[in-house]
Automatic annotation (TrEMBL), chain A:
Family: Belongs to the binding-protein-dependent transport system permease family. FecCD subfamily.
Protein name: Iron complex transport system permease protein
GO molecular function term, any single one: transmembrane transporter activity
Residue spans crossing the bilayer: 51-73, 85-105, 111-132, 139-164, 184-205, 231-258, 278-296, 303-320
Assigned GO CC terms: plasma membrane
GO annotation terms (biological process): siderophore-iron import into cell
Source organism per UniProt: Poseidonocella pacifica
Origin superkingdom: Bacteria
A matching Pfam family: FecCD
UniProtKB/TrEMBL annotation, chain B:
Entries under InterPro entries matching the protein: ABC_Transporter_SBP (IPR050902), ABC_transptr_periplasmic_BD (IPR002491)
Top-level taxon in the UniProt lineage: Bacteria
Matching PROSITE patterns: FE_B12_PBP
Gene source species: Poseidonocella pacifica
Name of the protein described by the UniProt record: Iron complex transport system substrate-binding protein
Length: 327, 252
């Protein structure tokens, strides 16, 4: 088996990371930028090290978390519509994060924010799996997802409206649309451990998911313990999506678009799709975050806007195809 | 104005301030609820005794006002209803420069039938302004400053904020900071002003304000100051803001 696809995606991620470091309102030349990044001297050094570097790293982390979670959920539910954003995991993670921030939990102890977002994501994944069942029928999955998303969104808005702070409306836009603007290394350190651990758990599920593609009975006869697979999946998705959402807000569609685009290239093998989707997700979010800065540099265009413009038509296409298959 | 209106209702923070300063005893029936907010309202202490409203047409109508004070940008639908009901609605522009403040004081004085009080206040303001200008002239020139608040918002230097800085002998920072609006953190770092003035925090937590905790601020050489209610609305208290900046600069 050749890993050309993974190598290409990896090279793409490295180029996009470089692009992300080079583009910004400060208008530094590429050579200046890299010199400043290495030296850390002067205002340019601050811009590179404290503003652009954490933004680029977070873009890759968040994208990888979302792409990988999408691929894992789709492999487990054997349904191409399973996506953290669409099925309410992102929304519930946002709710957890907002509660942690508004109650002061996030300020009281360092891991309060990612853990609360993780708890929100965990609740949503468990609820989805309970409602949609192990086979993840398309209709139940999407209906349950809509309900969980709507409920999480409503509670997020309620919590923010109850806040005495006048910036609540801005907050809602962030938690629904996501953004990487003005993030710092504080956010990288908060999210990275959870994304990495969650991601590692999900990547380890590849062989079980391959077996599951043949059906549950076949998988069990091949030695896959379904209850354990399910537990690992739930924790992995909650940990990576929760942490990503806690620092970048609700970025949708990554987990839908990326596995969809890559599925054929990996021969529809869930195990290979996991790694490829992590790379593809990182690439897509980095590119989207570059586009956000190029299209309307002064306006803080939200990442979720761009992702929805890319993702929603694809989703419509999937819905159309699913409908046809259902006959 | 011939006769003083007996029942005055103000439905905007900035109009509230002038009404609180100038109204006679019992004349001011209600002010907006924001006027009690000590972060945003320059004369919040004066508002403690006055009942508050939330700017709804029905709510205002029930107060039976003879005169309603509103902002230029107050909800036009509410104002249209009030006018249709025969209530006088006055929208005196918020001053955009310190020099416009005395005349704004006088305009509110005329509207409230308190011209004599207003004249005293305006004259005292002009005297204090002259003193502060004298102090500012003694300071070394060339230091730059900017406002940078929640969401990276810079008030822009063409209005009152820039005028406050200039009266403290400071040079408004250039570029996007001068133009105002949401300015990326990167732009602020590259512009490297000598002083950054940020807003005071509201209660509760917001990502918008958390921007000001970004570690890059600790690495910047700029001095950081808090703005405050004195900066809001172009009231006579803007001179408190000017004086506070002057005191900092004279001490250093």
């Amino acid at each position: 088996m050749s890993y050309r696809l993974e190598l290409l995606l990896g090279a793409g991620v490295i180029l996009a990371l470089a692009g992300s470091l080079l583009i910004g309102p400060a208008g530094l030349l590429p050579a200046e930028s890299f010199a400043a990044l290495l030296s850390g001297e002067g205002p340019a050094g601050l811009v590179m090290r404290e503003i652009r570097l954490p933004r680029a790293i977070l873009g890759a982390l968040v994208g990888a978390a979302l792409g990988l979670s999408g691929a894992a959920l789709q492999g487990y539910l054997r349904n191409p519509l399973a996506e953290p954003g669409l099925i309410g995991v992102t929304g519930a993670a946002s709710l957890g994060a907002v509660i942690a921030l508004q109650t002061g939990l996030a300020a009281a102890f360092t891991l309060g924010l990612p853990l609360a977002a993780l708890a929100g994501a965990l609740a949503a994944v468990l609820l989805i799996l309970a409602l949609a069942g192990p086979r993840g029928a398309a209709l139940t999955l999407i209906l349950a997802g809509i309900a969980i998303s709507a409920l999480a969104g409503a509670f997020t808005a309620l919590v923010l409206n109850l806040s005495p702070n006048p910036y609540a409306t801005y907050e809602m836009v962030f938690w629904m649309m996501g953004s990487l603007a003005n993030r710092s290394f504080t956010h990288v350190w908060l999210a990275a451990p959870f994304v990495v651990v969650g991601g590692a758990v999900l990547l380890s599920l590849g062989r079980s998911l391959d077996a599951l593609a043949l059906g549950e009975d076949a998988a069990e006869s091949m030695g896959v313990r379904l209850s354990r697979l399910r537990l690992a999946l739930v924790l992995g998705v909650a940990s990576s999506v929760g942490a990503a959402t806690a620092v970048a807000g609700g970025i949708g569609f990554v987990g839908l678009v990326v596995p969809h685009l890559l599925r054929r290239a990996v021969g529809s093998r869930p195990s290979r799709l996991l790694g490829a989707s992590a790379l593809g997700g990182a690439l897509l979010v980095l590119l989207a975050d570059i586009a956000v800065r190029l299209i309307l540099p002064e306006k803080d265009l939200k990442l979720g806007v761009l992702m929805a413009i890319i993702g929603a038509p694809l989703f419509l296409h999937l819905v159309y195809r699913t409908r046809r298959e259902l006959g | 104005m011939a006769e003083a209106p007996a029942r005055v209702v103000s439905m905007n923070l900035c109009a509230d301030q002038y009404a609180l300063l100038l109204a006679g005893p019992g004349q001011l029936v209600s002010v907006s609820h924001v006027s009690r907010d000590t972060v945003a309202s320059p004369y919040a202490a004066l508002a403690a005794e006055v009942p508050v409203n939330h700017g709804g047409a029905e709510e205002i109508w029930l107060l039976r006002p003879d005169l309603v004070l509103a902002h230029e940008w107050s909800d036009t639908r509410v104002l249209a209803i009030l006018r249709r009901l025969g209530i006088d609605v006055l929208q005196i522009p918020v001053p955009e420069a310190i020099a416009e403040i005395p005349d704004t004081v006088r305009a509110y004085g005329d509207a409230l039938g308190q011209s004599a009080t207003a004249e005293l206040l305006a004259t005292a303001f002009e005297q204090r302004l002259a003193d502060l200008e004298f102090r500012a002239a003694a300071l070394p020139p060339g230091k730059t400053a900017t406002l940078y608040g929640a969401n990276g918002y810079s008030a822009g230097m063409t209005g009152m904020a820039g005028d406050i800085l200039r009266h403290a002998g400071l040079l408004p920072a250039g570029g996007a900071l001068f133009a105002g609006g949401s300015v990326p953190l990167e732009t602020l770092v590259m512009e490297a002003p000598d002083m950054i003035i940020t807003g005071a925090r509201y209660a509760g937590w917001s990502r918008s304000e958390a921007l000001l905790d970004h570690p890059v601020f600790d690495a910047l050489p700029a001095a950081r100051r808090l703005s405050g209610p004195a900066w809001a609305c172009g009231t006579p208290r803007v001179l408190d803001a000017v004086e506070a900046l002057l005191a900092v600069r004279e001490a250093s």
